[in-house]
Amino acid sequence: MNAQPQLLHTREAFYRRDRRSVRLARDFTREALTDWGTPERTDDVLLCVSELTTNALLHGVPPGRGFLLQLALATDGVLRVEVHDSGTGEIRTPDIDPEVENGRGLLLVGVLADKWGVGERNPGKSVWCEFGMRR
Q1: Residue 23 lies in a domain
Q2: Coil, strand or helix at 42
Q3: Please, what is the average pLDDT of the chain?
């Protein structure tokens, strides 16, 4: 039986429904990666944090609410990013019209992250992605 990796570091922050929250979430993530000594893949992680938090704000956070960003680095070097919101709705990668300038966020997450998915919450959902970090 394989043992589950232990968590080395965790951080979380709650953000209100405000467009400045995406920048604040990126800054929070950058600081955590720096503090944890894991600069690899920082650009990929920050882009995915931007996409997931933007999606939460646009589609998952009702007025008067916010979203939770959780970061966890395990002993096996896997960084997990989770964005929890209280909105309803199914997450899916959309069919992209080449003439449209938006709607590619989850496609980018799927390309940049090693894994990604959606979990249920009550209320809402959590969208997560994982990155193998060198240790």
Answers
A1: yes
A2: helix
A3: 88
